[in-house]
Amino acid sequence: MNNDVTFTMIKPGAVNHEFIGPILTMINDAGFKIIAMRFTKLTIEEAEAFYSMHRDKHFFGELVKFITSAPVVAMILQKENAVADYRRLIGDTDPSKAAPGTIRALYAEDIEHNAVHGSDTDENARRECDFFFSMRERYADYPVIHTIKRRSV
Ligand code: RTP
Ligand code: MG
After folding, report:
1. Best mutation site among 11, 56, 86, 93 for ligand 1, i.e. most ligand atoms within 8 A of its Cβ?
2. Is 12 left (phi over 0), alpha (psi -120 to 50) or beta?
3. Which residue, by CA, sits nearest to atom 17 of ligand 1?
4. Could you give phi then psi for residue 144, rounded to 5 degrees?
5. pLDDT at residue 50, rounded to an integer
6. Which domains, and CATH codes, for the chain?
7. 150 pLDDT above the threshold of 90
8. What is the pLDDT of residues 41-80, one digit of tens each?
9. Could you tell me the CA-to-CA distances from 38 to 86, 88, 131 in Å, in that order?
10. Is the model's pLDDT at 126 over the cut of 60?
């Protein structure tokens, strides 16, 4: 697997509001390939470990409470320049500051309930991918044995 991957979660708020489909469409339309995916609910221990870099921040308690409140969709996304391009697609942490058309501008509630997670560096992307997925669960390379174009209705 090359370095051009990032890790994302569709967070509980977006899952609860049935925004999984529209967010996946935005991810695909922006040229990302989904190479791993799991629908899962984090335990408190898993959430505290995943977000351990934020342990001393004022929002840590709410962050852990929110991210464990319902299932998430965890994914590894592959694309050239994946980390930076995905951060651009999701927009600012605070949806009121996120650029129009970004995932957070469209689907986030507020800064603490902001629809999706996106890795911020290649190093963190690798750590976060490894936190969720074994190598066996990553499907970066497989033959395309037929082609189909998306049809409009
Ligand atoms: P993420 O890690 O989820 O992709 O978000 P991010 O990089 O844009 O923001 P980060 O600073 O890493 O914060 C992680 C998550 O903590 C919550 N947060 N709340 N109340 C606040 O000021 C605040 N700041 C951050 C958000 O859920 C944010 O996504
Ligand atoms: Mg972050």
Report:
1. 93
2. alpha
3. 112
4. -90, 115
5. 98
6. 16-136 (3.30.70.141)
7. no
8. 999 999 999 999 999 999 999 999 999 999 999 999 999 9
9. 19, 23, 12
10. yes
The upper half-sphere exposure of residue 47, i.e. CA atoms within 13 Å in the direction of its Cβ, equals 22
- The predicted model scores a pTM of 0.94
Could you tell me the two tokens for 99? Answer: 């650029």
Q: What is the pLDDT of residues 19-33, one digit of tens each?
A: 999 999 999 999 999
Measure Cα distances from 99 to 5, 10, 22, 85, 105 in Å.
Answer: 23, 19, 17, 14, 6
Distances in whole angstroms, Cα of residue 2 to Cα of each of 5, 41, 81, 97, 141: 7, 28, 11, 32, 11
Mean pLDDT of 133-137: 97
Nearest Cα neighbor of 47 from 14, 80, 70, 15 is 70
More confident residue, 62 or 141: 62
Separation between Cα atoms, residue 9 and residue 71, nearest integer Å: 10
Catalytic residues: 117
Spatial contact of 9 and 72, defined as CB atoms under 8 Å apart: yes
- Contact residues of ligand 1, CB 6 A cut-off: 54, 59, 63, 93, 111-112, 114, 117-118, 120
